[in-house]
Amino acid sequence: MQTLVNKTFDEIAPGDTAAMQRTLRAGDLRAWAAAFDDPDTPARPGGDQGAAGIVTALLSALVGSALPGPGSSIRSAAVQIKAELPIDAALTVRLKVRERRDQGIVVLDGECSDPAGQVVATAVLEVLAPTTRQERQVAEHRLDRLIERCHGLKPMLTGVVHPCSLDALSGAVEAAEAGLILPVLFGPETEIRQLADQGRLNLAKCRIVSTSGAEDSAQKAAAAAGAGEVAALMKGSLHTDVLLHAVMQKDAGLRTGRLLSHCAMVSVPTYARRFVVTDVALNIAPDTDQKRDICQNAIGFARALGIEQPKVAVLAAVEMVRTKMPASLDGAILAKMADRRQIVGGIVDGPLDLDAAVDVDAARIKKIDSPVAGLADVLLVPNIEAGNMVYKNLAFMADAQTAGLVVGARVPVILTSRADTAAARRFSAAAAVLYADALKHDPSILNPETAE
Q1: What would the pLDDT profile of 194-232 be if each residue is shown by its tens digit?
Q2: d(CA 111, CA 119)
Q3: pLDDT tens digit string along 290-326?
Q4: End-of-domain residue from the set 252, 283, 303
């Protein structure tokens, strides 16, 4: 949770400022167009309604969260678009107090600029400032916060395993340029340098460990992780099973006795809280005992990324236990295992169908009395087909932000895909940094004390 605290009218002075960064996606523009029935792309300079609306929304968010903050009321806003809004690049949004007026009104100058510092929009807002102190607790939503939390941490030594495609290599370089990782590239050096030249990528921050092929890359990277030479692994252009086979070799020293599973943190524009979906990429048809490990892994992952006591919904097609529906039985069993401290660190309930897990009104209508229903932080899916479809539907049709890791080994493993956006790769790297840092300070993230 985040705590938003306002500034009262008496505390505000001319020259006070507030700022935030947001990255607009093509999906944001499509959503705006759909909401207001505008067929045109709302990002052109000039008198475009869509661009003006987006800028107004961004400035309004900053008013409501920071200056003056909770309790503010916007009385008027005049926006001027000066240039095209940047897509897939950080947009800096700023407010500055111009003057205070009678009856609690403050006048704010607003500005939006692109990464090069070019001003793309300006605004003047008149705001009724609050007169009393107000605080508001809000659930963390956008995954940009993951990257912000990494700013106080050192870049993490990360073994990038066989980055022999331009996508894989550029993903590692982008994460390095964002200050998240220090890449150690395990792969054929000549091939890697040729790719870097082809993509005009700067490898100055990368160290290369030359290998003879994909299996050699995986084995050397896993051994380096087991020896503590790197703190995380990132999948390159090799097959996932080749990488994980090397991770699971006894000689690598990365096994913990726990099942490996994939956890994906997701932020959906139309849902007010981020959540974790598991397992969408690794375990095909887990049995009940494997789901226990998947559940415990997800609780640790969610805790490492800032959810203090994750609420886990074990999903099925119905919220009632049906003996002919194995997923519903697993839900009931895992909930009872949590009651008996065989699963710890979170609140587990099931079976829950998806709508009851994420929608308070649906849970109320169905008369479900549960501390998880409508408030789920973790969605534990029945099998890989269900999880993969939920995950990809959200990512490709709902413009969700995503960050995914394989957990359960001594180090996090970042799984990247050719279809991943640059943002998804950065968010996944940030998640790995936070997870590895959490492990250093709290070993129970990975190895909690549970009842036998």
Answers
A1: 999 999 999 988 999 999 999 999 999 999 999 999 999
A2: 7
A3: 999 999 999 999 999 999 999 999 999 999 999 999 9
A4: 252
Q: Is 257 helix (H, G, I), strand (E, B) or coil?
A: coil
- 10 Å CB burial of residue 38 (0-12, 13-18, 19+) is middle
Q: Do residues 404 and 265 both lie within one domain?
A: yes
Indicate the helix (H) or strand (E) that contains 77. Answer: strand 73-81
- Select from 2, 425, 68, 15 the least CA-distant residue to 234: 425
Selection from 123, 8, 110, 127 nearest residue 76 by Cα: 127
Task: Give the pLDDT score at 43.
Answer: 45
Domain holding 209: CATH number?
A: 3.40.718.10
Count of structural domains, the chain: 3
Are residues 306 and 393 both part of a single domain? yes
Task: Supply the angle between the helices 288-304 and 422-441 in degrees, to the nearest 10.
Answer: 90
Note down the domain range covering 397: 261-408
Boundary residue ending a domain (95, 122, 138) = 138
Query: Does the pLDDT of residue 441 top 70, yes or no?
Result: yes
443 in a domain, yes or no? Answer: no
Measure the CA–CA gap between 57 and 90, rounded to whole angstroms.
Answer: 16
